[in-house]
């Protein structure tokens, strides 16, 4: 079945996982143009997570549309064998590897372009040594191994700490204010990548991503499920912003055309500041439910400004209002989820 539509905002519903996966991996025209300018194979390090499979498939589709012969290679432990088979069937090569193993990292194929996605968040509070190894030590290993590549590295908005919700959100030049070991280890990742970028002249970019969402995972799913199942929602982290995962995927690949030494830093996020309370109330109206709350909104929250991102790549293709509509419909129809809460309410780094 062909699900392609000219404007995804015209979609009233996402029918099933097949259509969802097509949407998440659909390349934009701008990305195809980027692929025509940026040469070389693309290697994804840590591709087995929530974003990795759809991102690798999008790269495969964009590369095919751009023409030429380019390898797309996904590296992960691949504990989810179904995800690995799905990538292989799509034309993405897969490599199983433990990235903290120096010899395994050395044996990975060379690639002109590297998308670095490896990291450790959920469980970080209970395992600080692994957190620092994954988030700060491994990036240095990878930057030395791929010193001659372009490197696009995923980071997180958690490095900024909390900011007043009335503000426009933190910008890339604001001082970093970590509040816990997880966010400190993520700053470690950025500092190490910056160091080796300067030392070896490796062109890189750092993507401070804030809440990419799709129908199976994200802060909207967390809120929608709570409303639908009549569970109370904690309002302490009262505001947030987000971005449709398809847009985050396309932007991350487009930054291959914007890497530099020292690295370019960019917040990847949509333009809207959303209220947890108001989003829950909107879900309540769509679902015929009465949201339940506890706590009150704090003056601060995790909020970033996407102005630089929007200037470079344009506004996201899907609005927050449309994402809320899709999410409510998905949950009411019993659509599958990854069953992995985001922990968006967390204010002390205890993920």
TrEMBL record:
Highest taxon of source: Bacteria
NAD-dependent epimerase/dehydratase domain sequence ranges: 42-209
Pfam families, per the entry: Epimerase
UniProt xrefs under InterPro entries: Epimerase_deHydtase (IPR001509), NAD(P)-bd_dom_sf (IPR036291)
Protein name in the entry: NAD dependent epimerase/dehydratase family protein
Organism: Aureliella helgolandensis
């Amino acid at each position: 079945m062909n699900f392609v539509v000219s404007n995804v905002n015209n979609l009233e519903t996402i029918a099933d996982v097949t259509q969802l996966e097509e949407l998440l991996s659909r390349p934009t025209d701008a990305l195809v143009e980027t692929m025509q300018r940026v040469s070389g194979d693309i290697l994804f390090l840590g591709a087995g997570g929530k974003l990795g499979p759809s991102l690798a498939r999008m790269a495969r589709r964009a590369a095919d549309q751009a023409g030429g012969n380019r390898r797309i290679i996904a590296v992960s432990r691949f504990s989810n064998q179904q995800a690995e088979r799905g990538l292989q069937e799509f034309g993405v090569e897969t490599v199983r590897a433990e990235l903290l193993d120096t010899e395994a990292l050395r044996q990975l194929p060379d690639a002109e372009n590297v998308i670095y996605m490896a990291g450790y968040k959920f469980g970080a509070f209970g395992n600080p040594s692994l957190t620092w190894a994954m988030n700060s030590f491994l990036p240095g290993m990878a930057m030395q191994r791929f010193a001659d590549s372009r490197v696009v590295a995923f980071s997180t908005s958690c490095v900024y700490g909390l900011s007043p919700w009335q503000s426009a959100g933190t910008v890339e030049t604001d001082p970093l204010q970590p509040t816990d070991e997880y966010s400190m280890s993520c700053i470690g990742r950025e500092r190490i990548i910056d160091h080796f970028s300067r030392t070896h002249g490796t062109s890189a970019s750092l993507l401070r991503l804030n809440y990419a969402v799709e129908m199976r995972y994200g802060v909207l799913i967390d809120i929608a499920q709570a409303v639908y199942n009549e569970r109370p929602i904690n309002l302490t982290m009262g505001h947030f912003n987000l971005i449709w995962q398809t847009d985050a995927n396309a932007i991350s690949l487009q930054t291959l055309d914007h890497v530099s030494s020292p690295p370019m830093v960019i917040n990847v996020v949509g333009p809207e500041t959303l209220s947890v309370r108001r989003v829950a109330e909107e879900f309540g109206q769509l679902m015929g439910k009465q949201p339940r709350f506890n706590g009150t909104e704090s003056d601060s929250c995790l909020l970033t400004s996407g102005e630089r991102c929007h200037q470079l790549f344009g506004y996201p293709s899907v609005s927050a209002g449309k994402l809320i509509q899709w999410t409510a419909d998905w949950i009411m129809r019993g659509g599958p989820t990854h069953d992995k809460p985001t922990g968006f309410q967390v204010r002390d780094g205890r993920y």
